[in-house]
Every structure is written in C-alpha cells, then in structure tokens.
Amino acid sequence: MSEQTIDTEKLGEEIVRVLKTIYDPEIPVDIYELGLIYDVFVNEDYEVKILMTLTSPNCPVAESLPQEVNEKVKSLDQVKDSEIELTFDPPWSQDLMSEEAKLELGML
User: Fold this and answer.
1) Which residues form a coiled coil (predicted)?
2) How many domains does the chain have?
3) Structural domain includes residue 98
C-alpha cells in the first residue's frame, strides 16, 4: 500500500468526522448517521466529491445544508477542493439511517 493510499483513506476518515458535526435542523441526528451522505470520493490531488441527499427535495435547508457541508470539508487543511452533488436517486428513506440514529430517535 503506497503512502498516498493511506493518506486519502485517512483524509476520508477526517471528512467523515467533519460530516458528523453537521446536523439536520429538524432531526437531532448528524447527517452522516442519518444516511444523507451516499458517498465520499477523494482523489490523489485531495479533491473531494460528496454525493449526498436531503430528507426531502423541499427540505428547508436545501440551499444551506450542502453549502455547510462544502465549507466544512474545504476547511480541512489537506482538502484542495470540494464539490457537493445532490441527488434524490435513490430517495432518502428511514432505512438509510444508522442503528445509532434510529436508537436516538426512539425507532428501535
């Protein structure tokens, strides 16, 4: 395993740590545990692409949440650039939530 591979993997973990500090304003669970983050890509140039969704297309934070994700990810020293792609395919459902999130919301 090259040093670079470990670096991007480590950066991926840092990104997840940052994502876990961002909360959906309507649900007291972070967006990562909520299942709103579908994928995090980091290339060898430390450019990040995040594929995410919202709980609904009419979500009141449809504008601000992706922007907050982008700003927080870009604030990491190693990240050169960050791009957020919103998708509603597949649409978000409660099945995407982690056990932790379901427990937090009293669904287990």
Assistant:
1) none
2) 1
3) no
The count of residues in the chain is 108
Q: What is the pTM of this model?
A: 0.89
CA 13 to chain centre: 11
The dihedral formed by the CA atoms of 38, 43, 47 and 51, expressed in degrees to the nearest 10: -10
Reduced 3-state DSSP string for 19-85: HCCCECCCCCCECCCCCCEEEEEECCCCEEEEEECCCCCCCCCCCHHHHHHHHHHHCCCCCCEEEEE
Residue span of the structural domain in which 69 resides = 3-92
Residue 106 lies in a domain: no
Rounded Cα–Cα distance for residues 20 and 15 (Å): 9
Rounded CA-CA distance 30/75 in Å is 18
- CATH number of the domain within which 54 lies: 3.30.300.130
Residues sharing a CB contact under 8 Å with residue 23, sequence separation 6 or more, in sequence order: 29, 30, 31
Amino acid identity of residue 79, one-letter, is V
